[in-house]
Amino acid sequence: MERVTLTGARRGRLIPFGTLLVLAGLLVSAVARAELVTWLYDVSVPVTNQSAAARSEAAGNALRELLMRVSGVAELPESPVLAAALARPTPYYRSFEYRRRTVAAAPLTERDGASPDGAPPVRQLEVAFTFAQAPVLKLVKALELPIWLRNRPRVVPWVRVGDDALVLAASGPDSSPSSPAQVVAEAMVNHALKRGLPLTLPTTDTDGQVPTVPASLERLSALELSTLSTGLGGELFGRGRIERIGTRLSAQLEFTDLLGELTLPVAVRADTPAELGTAIVDALADGLASRYAASGGGLVRLEVRGVATPGAYVELLRYLRGRSYLGTLKVLESGNGALLLEIDSQAGVEQLADLFAVDGRLAEPLDLGSQTPLRFGAAVYDWQG
Known about the structure:
Elements: H1 17-23, H2 27-32, E1 35-36, E2 42-46, H3 52-71, H4 80-87, E3 93-103, E4 122-131, H5 133-142, E5 151-152, E6 155-161, E7 164-165, H6 180-195, H7 222-228, E8 236-245, E9 248-257, E10 263-270, H8 273-292, E11 296-305, H9 310-321, E12 326-335, E13 338-347, H10 349-359, E14 362-363, E15 379-383
Parallel strand pairs: 6-8, 11-15
Antiparallel strand pairs: 1-5, 2-4, 3-4, 6-7, 8-9, 9-10, 11-13, 12-13, 14-15
Helix pairs in contact: 6-8
């Protein structure tokens, strides 16, 4: 699989005036480019029975999956700290419940007396855990893993698989769950859940009607692609094709945000449709985590302007202390409605700019203006409240 590359610039991008008029009503959501993933700390895993031993093993598996979600890391580095946590996972979750989920059975062979199309669905026993954020984040820091906050962009891919559209079929008489496009779609949705990535695919209706996917996807602008995705809530839009090259499947996709500030090309190959869907999601999650999962930091200095009242001061400190990738915070100087802060940050100065841009409450100024900075060398931000 090819490594994914992530590009984009935060400053100086010129946007045509006509496009700005169309974007005016979308700026609030475009600035944030992310949603709060409310289900991030809820993990369901298969379990063999309802015994305490089976539940403990399942909880360890669920905790491993959660650590991958929170850190953005596809493979956790083994360590004694990780082994101890997985062996005794009870302190990390608040509640659990058993449920049964309908899943496709493994296909049976003609020798078994069944159609090669497969067997009827089965009801699989699962246990759903709700984990507590504080102890999990403490464990993430003890493991020295990156931290990816719950604000994450929703991804909407528009992809063609040969002559078919990549859609998630509704349960209806005309759905074809065994088609290659459908297998890729289901694998993407299932693996996105494991990686903590909000992902929405166009969906057929109960009569099997498929949304129109233009043949010339590569020529659509980000604005046209966002219009195509109306109602799906996406902040990161993808386009591309999946084709068979020799004996393998190949995906050539490109994802971008509404303003074109973030570009994420994905090129992967796999032997089967299910493996390809998994590989696409891994490339997406790895690329986004490389930008938004905080790592490689240290002591940083920030000058924050627009803090002219006691209320603004309190709200700013509350906001910064709510960022799990920020540690000890010191106010070094204040004056003229600005604060000079020294922060023990898990993210470096450049990555902090990307992380603050997720919700837009701390914004990089377009220019420093005539105001004299409190300290040269500090990164400057305007507090938006």
